[in-house]
Amino acid sequence: MEKTPKIAIYPGSFDPITNGHIDIIKRAIMLFDQVIVSVTRNLSKSPLFDETERVQMIRESLNDFPHISVESFDGLLIDYAREKQASAIIRGLRAVSDFEYEFQMALVNRKLHDDVVTVFLMTHDKYSYLNSSIVKELVRLGGDVDFFVPAHVRTRLEEKLRVK
Amino acid sequence: MEKTPKIAIYPGSFDPITNGHIDIIKRAIMLFDQVIVSVTRNLSKSPLFDETERVQMIRESLNDFPHISVESFDGLLIDYAREKQASAIIRGLRAVSDFEYEFQMALVNRKLHDDVVTVFLMTHDKYSYLNSSIVKELVRLGGDVDFFVPAHVRTRLEEKLRVK
Amino acid sequence: MEKTPKIAIYPGSFDPITNGHIDIIKRAIMLFDQVIVSVTRNLSKSPLFDETERVQMIRESLNDFPHISVESFDGLLIDYAREKQASAIIRGLRAVSDFEYEFQMALVNRKLHDDVVTVFLMTHDKYSYLNSSIVKELVRLGGDVDFFVPAHVRTRLEEKLRVK
Amino acid sequence: MEKTPKIAIYPGSFDPITNGHIDIIKRAIMLFDQVIVSVTRNLSKSPLFDETERVQMIRESLNDFPHISVESFDGLLIDYAREKQASAIIRGLRAVSDFEYEFQMALVNRKLHDDVVTVFLMTHDKYSYLNSSIVKELVRLGGDVDFFVPAHVRTRLEEKLRVK
Amino acid sequence: MEKTPKIAIYPGSFDPITNGHIDIIKRAIMLFDQVIVSVTRNLSKSPLFDETERVQMIRESLNDFPHISVESFDGLLIDYAREKQASAIIRGLRAVSDFEYEFQMALVNRKLHDDVVTVFLMTHDKYSYLNSSIVKELVRLGGDVDFFVPAHVRTRLEEKLRVK
Amino acid sequence: MEKTPKIAIYPGSFDPITNGHIDIIKRAIMLFDQVIVSVTRNLSKSPLFDETERVQMIRESLNDFPHISVESFDGLLIDYAREKQASAIIRGLRAVSDFEYEFQMALVNRKLHDDVVTVFLMTHDKYSYLNSSIVKELVRLGGDVDFFVPAHVRTRLEEKLRVK
User: Fold this and answer.
1) Is the pLDDT of residue B164 over 60?
2) Which of B5, B121, B124 sits opposite A119 (nearest CB)?
3) Neighbours of chain F (3+ CB pairs under 8 A)
4) B112 at the F interface (CB within 8 A)?
């Protein structure tokens, strides 16, 4: 009897992808047969990078990894997850403030449909303080972000934020 | 090509197993091919139930579930997990206080060996306040624990704690 | 000698009222002789429902409860509470993030006037993740909110958010 | 028709009572017709003061306040509260760590019986760091606790802890 | 051999300075030879007071203190700190929510340059709930802020916010 | 005019010293003219290493650092700090749970004497999960603690804990 492959989605705005996100994705692929990195199409606040750019930067960052795909989505996350036949929604946790918001969303999603499990992975301690907003702020102020994002993301950030 | 089955361990003292633990195990089995419920043999504080009783109560609670096994272990958790060829260590998260301790242990384990991923699952909101200590305290004081543990666990708790 | 009735106010934006709010109000009326649900007239961010609609939805949700009145207010909460001869300001607590903001406001209010007591009630665990923003977001994305708000609130939400 | 008086219980170990406890009791009496300060008879860890001493110190601290009574109890808190026909269980909140434990107990009590409401009052900011353990530790090490407890409690503490 | 004086910077938006900030500055000057209060020139959200007004209000509040200077800055905080030959960046901590954001920034700054130490000082308990936003909101609603800011800051706040 | 040297004490049980403690000490010496590492003589729970051993291990770990001294103390921390003419008490902060306990102690100490400032330094992210208890537990279970403590501390830990 053939085993059904286990699929996980990793949703986010990825504006842009950071080394923290990449660390989570590499952990997720150790657990699931396929990981779909799912870029939120319409964000409530306007993103720095448009949907296409955000997807491209993720793809370039994950070239070497098999069993990972990247796409964008909109609508209700839990409906999207079920359409993809995902067993799991992956979320990275860094700090207590993450924890509360993430739990709230996980509980709402579980209430809506009980057949997709939200799975929390811990961000590596060396990226525990990292998020996309801080990276953008650093580039804006002229700081060095080599440690925080892949080189190609850094280049794009500088093009967007330092030309002005 | 055959896919390697994904194994997860769910370690704990389970003194005794509660409906909160059972909820986590049912979620874990939606994600992994096999879940090993692993009872800590030697606890720092002396348990109410001995190792054999704790294992038995878990087995009775999970009779109907395939792909779940129960055993006890001692030594370093991460060594045990690798010996079992586990991809994941499952931990339930309920509250902020859980969160900090669990993250600390997950970071230590990741530092020791990077090839087993700690996976956090969210306890169902209706069990968010539940733990084994509260259940024991309630039985000791004559409270009703039907909502909190399976009937056979309740019976054992009353035998242990109300005879006195 | 006649006892002075104890009055409590329950302030909020209620944009719209949820089942979590209703649970708090039902608990408050077990404690006080009169509960005034007090809708903040001018919000810093523009509400989905205007003041009249927000008051109406609360009234429709609480038709069957005596000793509850609904009104709107503006100005300083503590001044309004004293004008109403309230002994207490009711606040619902769900999570740690609530806790800190609510404590801050309670301490400021106590500093301004020491004769009104801020009273925190715990939201029922089944609504612990619920707030008005999540309900609006769910309706906007086509999610089912039957569990979260009364039927008449759901209808109004769909009229506002799905027509577009 | 006569109004039923609203009774609240304020349970604790009070080993010994501090100025923080007294602040909470004064706030509670602004809200309820009667407040019963309820001393836990059997504590899991052995108290510094026995049950009679703990009750006496509370009585001496609250001499001037009408509508307050002091007694000891054992057994399940929620059963005791119902026997006293209490509408409310009062709990003081100081910090996030309090919050989680207190919520857990309030949710368990609500699950056991839904007719007694747990009410959280905020400790005055000037006592936000205060608890009985710290007071005992300070006296043991020769520190001045005038700000933290009434004079008669201070005397008893010094008799117990400095004789040695 | 002459000892190099230890310089600390205390950065912030100070829109306006409160008694909580002043308490931190007085503590900092007990530790360092010189404290530079550094006003963020360009804020992401538009401030109530412009840069010049914010600097003036701080100067008027700290007239009597030697070894304190006030200036404004923009760009990356850590670069500014090094340019000033500061050993330390001072940050006030009040609550858990402060804690996480502040740690994140301190870790980022340490990653960028390891030679400036972020030093956290505890806000006095009587100002633990205080921040510039609450003060502005209180003045806007007609509340009394005498306890929260120096008299000259109160006057300026009323001029700005009550004329409208 | 001669400048009075600024002295800081860094109190703790250090049972044993870890790389996290050493990181804090190195940061503290960047800020103060002298740092006294102060080992708590009598601990409430019995330590693994006696007072002399704990002092020795700290001294061996800090051989290369000038301006650091190590001693043991008992009694009230704030009295000891004043006797040493210290301006500051250094405390390391790692996580939210640290934060609350540390703030409580800092507020008590400030209430007792206002002339010594508690200064919080942030533990390096790579040691954010580290404490002496975890290190002892790891050695007890046969884990590798090279990353967590200096080599000479590791040797002593193994002598104490693995002989059994």
Assistant:
1) no
2) B121
3) A, B, D, E
4) yes
Copy the structure tokens of residue B28. Answer: 């874990």
pLDDT value, residue E1: 45
Helix (H, G, I), strand (E, B) or coil at E97: helix
Q: What is the pLDDT of residue B99?
A: 65
**Mutate which: D103, D109, D110, D128, vs C, most C CBs within 10 A:** D103
**ipTM of predicted assembly, 2 dp:** 0.91
> Is residue D118 within 8 Å of residue D87, measured between CB atoms?
no
**Spans of chain A, pLDDT less than 70:** 1-2, 95-100, 163-164
Of E128, E141, E144, the CB nearest to C75: E141
Question: Residue E10's pLDDT is what?
Answer: 97
pLDDT band at D105 (very low <50, low <70, confident <90, very high): confident
Q: Which residues of chain E carry a pLDDT beneath 50?
A: 1, 164
Residue C113 has pLDDT above 80, yes or no: yes
| DSSP 8-state assignment for residue C30 | T
A126 closest CB neighbour out of F96, F125, F129: F125
Q: CA-to-CA distance for D138 and D144, rounded, in angstroms?
A: 7
CB-nearest partner of F142 from B75, B96, B104 = B75
Question: By the CB < 8 Å criterion, does B108 face chain F?
Answer: yes
> Where do the structural domains in chain F lie, given as residue ranges?
7-124
Q: Give SS3 for A15.
A: coil
User: Is any Cβ of chain F less than 8 angstroms from the Cβ of D138?
Assistant: yes
Residue of B129, B130, B146 to mutate, interface with D, max D Cβ within 10 Å: B129
B50 touches chain F (CB under 8 A): no
**Tokens for D28?**
């509670």
Token pair listed for D1: 């028709």
Is residue B106 within 8 Å of B128, Cβ to Cβ?
no
Chain F closest CA to D160's CA: distance in Å?
18
User: How far from A64 is each of A60, A61, A90, D73, CA to CA, in Å?
Assistant: 9, 8, 20, 67
Q: Which residues pair with B40 in a beta bridge?
A: B73
| Rounded-to-integer distance, Cα E21 and Cα A132, Å | 30
Active site residue B21: yes
| DSSP of D89-145 | EEEEE-SHHHHHHHHHHHHHHHHH-TTSEEEEEEPPGGGTT--HHHHHHHHHTT---
The architecture that CATH gives domain F7-124 is 3-Layer(aba) Sandwich (3.40)
State the pLDDT at residue F1: 45
With beta carbons under 8 A apart, name residues in chain C contacting E97: 97, 100
pLDDT tens digits, E93-124:
876 666 667 777 888 888 889 999 999 998 88
Contacting subunits of D (3+ beta carbon pairs below 8 A): B, C, E, F
Is C111 an interface residue toward E (CB < 8 Å)? yes
**Contact at CB, D120 and C124, closer than 8 angstroms:** no
pLDDT digits (tens, 9 = 90+) for C5-59: 899 999 999 999 999 999 999 999 999 999 999 999 877 778 999 999 999 999 9
User: Does the pLDDT value for residue B43 go beyond 80?
Assistant: no
Range F69-87 average pLDDT:
95
